[in-house]
């Protein structure tokens, strides 16, 4: 009897019905998030934001061997940091015209590489990071790129956002949510984080705690384009936003 009684109490506790037992709390999720997401999908239906036409997924040579393609994806991600898609796309086109491979970059002197990628943001630092990372890829990975986030973020000039995007685009693997400034800003405006976050990596962790995994691949593309066209960093176009009535940060007119 005793064992049965303990068992029944344990089951009741798991269901949150035992005497004195604290009920298990439901998983937190933001208010109205599903409707907000559907409306953002509607606003992004035309796929005409800069990220759609000149984003990293458009910067590599799709006809190149898989290993070369993956290297080009990683390089475009490194160039894209704090740089507009249009500038990154143009720099990648100039690089590809010279035959963009691990070996071609290693043979290129720093001055030439700098002239080609200018005016991407922090281009001098990126010249250094690109040369260092490319040498590591040649020596350690046989000219390919790592296939894990843990290894990718160890490369000079590669952060978590780039690593998750590289896994997605280059390896077709969803390892996490890629959070850039747009995703970070919009997630806080919509209150898709339980409490305000200061840094993109905090936002990534907060989003992954509740957002269904089958949406992780889509969310970066959706929110980046939305942030480029409507939910701007300064003077967001709230009057044009379908979420105006259910957005906590909306400027209602």
UniProtKB/TrEMBL annotation:
<dbReference type="GO" id="GO:0006285">
    <property type="term" value="P:base-excision repair, AP site formation"/>
</dbReference>
<dbReference type="GO" id="GO:0046872">
    <property type="term" value="F:metal ion binding"/>
</dbReference>
<feature type="region of interest" description="Disordered">
    <location>
        <begin position="1"/>
        <end position="29"/>
    </location>
</feature>
<keyword id="KW-0234">DNA repair</keyword>
<feature type="domain" description="HhH-GPD">
    <location>
        <begin position="79"/>
        <end position="229"/>
    </location>
</feature>
<keyword id="KW-0004">4Fe-4S</keyword>
<dbReference type="GO" id="GO:0051539">
    <property type="term" value="F:4 iron, 4 sulfur cluster binding"/>
</dbReference>
<protein>
    <recommendedName>
        <fullName>DNA-(apurinic or apyrimidinic site) lyase</fullName>
        <ecNumber>4.2.99.18</ecNumber>
    </recommendedName>
</protein>
<dbReference type="InterPro" id="IPR000445">
    <property type="entry name" value="HhH_motif"/>
</dbReference>
<dbReference type="Pfam" id="PF00730">
    <property type="entry name" value="HhH-GPD"/>
</dbReference>
<keyword id="KW-0408">Iron</keyword>
<dbReference type="InterPro" id="IPR030841">
    <property type="entry name" value="NTH1"/>
</dbReference>
<keyword id="KW-0809">Transit peptide</keyword>
<dbReference type="InterPro" id="IPR011257">
    <property type="entry name" value="DNA_glycosylase"/>
</dbReference>
<dbReference type="InterPro" id="IPR004036">
    <property type="entry name" value="Endonuclease-III-like_CS2"/>
</dbReference>
<dbReference type="GO" id="GO:0003677">
    <property type="term" value="F:DNA binding"/>
</dbReference>
<dbReference type="GO" id="GO:0006289">
    <property type="term" value="P:nucleotide-excision repair"/>
</dbReference>
<keyword id="KW-0227">DNA damage</keyword>
<dbReference type="GO" id="GO:0140078">
    <property type="term" value="F:class I DNA-(apurinic or apyrimidinic site) endonuclease activity"/>
</dbReference>
<comment type="similarity">
    <text>Belongs to the Nth/MutY family.</text>
</comment>
<keyword id="KW-0411">Iron-sulfur</keyword>
<keyword id="KW-0326">Glycosidase</keyword>
<dbReference type="GO" id="GO:0005634">
    <property type="term" value="C:nucleus"/>
</dbReference>
<keyword id="KW-0456">Lyase</keyword>
<dbReference type="InterPro" id="IPR004035">
    <property type="entry name" value="Endouclease-III_FeS-bd_BS"/>
</dbReference>
<dbReference type="Pfam" id="PF00633">
    <property type="entry name" value="HHH"/>
</dbReference>
<dbReference type="InterPro" id="IPR003265">
    <property type="entry name" value="HhH-GPD_domain"/>
</dbReference>
<dbReference type="GO" id="GO:0000703">
    <property type="term" value="F:oxidized pyrimidine nucleobase lesion DNA N-glycosylase activity"/>
</dbReference>
<keyword id="KW-0479">Metal-binding</keyword>
<keyword id="KW-0378">Hydrolase</keyword>
<dbReference type="InterPro" id="IPR003651">
    <property type="entry name" value="Endonuclease3_FeS-loop_motif"/>
</dbReference>
<dbReference type="InterPro" id="IPR023170">
    <property type="entry name" value="HhH_base_excis_C"/>
</dbReference>
